[in-house]
Design goal:
The protein has 238 residues and is α+β, with helices and mostly antiparallel strands. It has three helices and 14 strands. The strands form four sheets. A five-stranded antiparallel sheet has the order 6-5-4-1-7, with no helix packed on it.
Length: 238
């Protein structure tokens, strides 16, 4: 159903909403559009240009957030971000370890309906643009509003969305976390190890007891399923 989070009227045309839903979701991650970012490193010096040697005195510290843009990959293969507030630059990945130093801050809509954007962090200040809404499952790049707890400000449009339903208090947006490279590697290696162990165990059991070893194989398979589920638990979606 298309309920504007209990704060506005139903859309005039359901067909219009259905037709614009895909476009709405795609526009958030256009490479030339603004996104929200969070710093993962203890500290990263800003640069005055997309050159590592051009250090600024400004520093982005762990947990700092900002709105900015992904820049086109440079000739030397380096990847950069620009901060729209200070107009300075940050390297996206560590020059030596090649690990990401910044992560995009994104929120998934969990509300079973459509949430209309606001011009300000006020429930009644609904945007006049009927296409400014987010439906269940869609993702926006946004940051919490420090001075207005319970509100998000979207990176590109700078419009606001409530994080909780005004009447029920139910969660409307949940942050979508990104698993780091080390966790992905561990999960993949652990999964391969579990499967490999199961294969070896199965071969040994059958070579010793033949088909009488089926109970042992089935028991071990159950253990494998649990093992894989545990090591990959952090890979599940929010």
């Amino acid at each position: 159903h298309f309920l504007f989070c209990g704060f506005g009227s139903r859309p005039k045309s359901v067909k219009k909403i259905l037709g614009s839903a895909t476009l709405h979701c795609n526009r958030f991650f256009h490479p030339k559009m603004a996104c929200a970012f969070r710093c993962l490193q203890a500290s990263v010096f800003y640069r005055t240009s997309t050159a590592m040697k051009e250090k600024s005195e400004a520093v982005c510290r762990s947990g700092d957030t900002f709105f900015g843009k992904y820049l086109t990959e440079q000739e030397d293969g380096s990847q950069w971000l620009s901060n729209e507030s200070n107009e300075l630059f940050l390297p996206l990945v560590h020059p030596e370890t090649k690990e990401k130093m910044f992560v995009e801050v994104r929120y998934r809509c969990t509300f079973d309906g459509a949430v209309q954007a606001r011009n300000s962090p006020e429930a009644s200040d609904i945007s006049s643009d009927s296409e400014r809404y987010v439906r269940m499952g869609e993702i926006i790049s946004a940051l919490p509003v420090p001075e207005q707890p319970g509100w998000l400000i979207e990176a590109e449009s700078k419009l606001y969305y409530p994080m909780n339903h005004q009447e029920t208090g139910d969660v409307i947006f949940k942050e979508k976390t990104e698993m780091d490279a080390s966790t992905r590697t561990f999960a993949a290696e652990a999964t391969i190890g579990c499967i490999g162990s199961q294969i070896v165990f199965t071969v040994l059991v059958f070579s010793k007891w033949g088909t009488d070893g089926w109970p042992f194989v089935v028991s071990a398979l159950g253990g494998l399923i649990i093992c894989v589920a545990l090591v990959n638990s952090r890979r599940r979606k929010d």
